[in-house]
Design goal:
Elements: H1 4-21, E1 35-40, H2 47-50, E2 56-60, H3 68-80, E3 84-88, H4 106-126, E4 131-134, H5 138-146, H6 148-159, E5 166-170, H7 175-183, E6 189-194, H8 217-230, E7 232-234, E8 240-242, E9 247-250, H9 255-270
Helix pairs in contact: 3-4, 4-6, 5-6, 8-9
């Protein structure tokens, strides 16, 4: 039997806890719902239809697509709807929409990313808006994932911005090592999943030129539902792969995509 003084100690601790918390039950705090991000300002003209349903607008900065006029228009729409904005820099490849990897050395990548962040940042400041993060586009995004030198150059460019910016990186099995790398330059990493892209067994996106790489509307909604309910996706080989993400990328560059974003927003709200 426990000594009297020990039983009294437990009782007093219990009384103190009840006094501090009242009659409310103790609740565990879960992470907030995953956010929706979308690539915008790329010339599709869907910004006004998409922005009310997303949380984060990735704005093209003129190298792979976009213009100062379109950047400003997208910034103002985001501001009107309380949507966070981020720079969406890519390779200087307007002809190929930034989907072609280009031979750039470390310093060149630092400079091309820095220039694009600065271009959007200056426009944002002129409209009383703050940019919050950076998400590289297309081939630059994939090179960041596969090439440590490209990744280091992007970390450096993002960290040089006058105000703190987060960096979006795909939620692959390497995400924790990427967080550790980025933290060395003071950067926060936001892990990203994709609503409309097929994954392979190692957590990478299946290349666009491969059959089935881009999901149709039904497949996309099914993948989002699985992400919400199970925290996983089904790979191209039919296996389940765990995915833990802070933000979910959607695409609204066509009419069906815009409607799909509305449905995904509803799914996340109900999840």
């Amino acid at each position: 039997m426990e000594p009297f003084w020990l039983r009294m100690k437990y009782n007093w601790c219990g009384l103190l806890l009840i006094f501090c918390l009242g009659s409310k039950p103790i609740q565990l705090q879960l992470n907030p719902p995953v956010k929706l991000n979308c690539d915008l300002g790329e010339g599709a003209g869907s910004e006004a239809a998409v922005i009310p349903f997303i949380d984060q607008a990735n704005i093209a900065c003129g190298f792979h697509a976009g213009s100062p006029e379109l950047m400003r228009k997208t910034l103002l729409l985001a501001k009107a709807h309380g949507v966070s904005v981020g720079a969406h820099p890519g390779y200087a490849d307007r002809e190929g929409f930034g989907r072609k990897s280009m031979p750039c050395n470390f310093d060149e990548i630092v400079e091309l990313v820095r220039q694009q962040i600065s271009a959007l940042g200056e426009l944002a400041i002129s409209e009383g808006i703050r940019i919050d993060y950076v998400k590289p586009h297309g081939a630059l995004y994939h090179d960041m994932l596969s090439d440590a030198e490209v990744r280091r150059a992007i970390y450096l460019a993002v960290s040089q911005h006058p105000s703190p910016l987060a960096l979006m990186i795909q939620a692959t099995p390497d995400i924790e090592s990427h967080r550790a790398e980025a933290s060395q330059t003071g950067l926060e990493v936001w892990a990203e999943a994709f609503a409309d892209r097929r994954y392979d067994n190692v957590g990478r996106l299946v290349a666009r030129q491969e059959a089935g790489a881009v999901l149709d509307r039904s497949q996309m909604l099914q993948q989002v539902q699985q992400l919400v309910t199970e925290g996983s996706v089904t790979t191209d080989a039919g296996n389940k792969l765990a995915v833990s993400a802070d933000t979910l990328c959607v695409h609204g560059d066509h009419a069906e995509g815009v409607e799909s974003i509305r449905e995904i927003r509803k799914l996340l709200s109900n999840g």
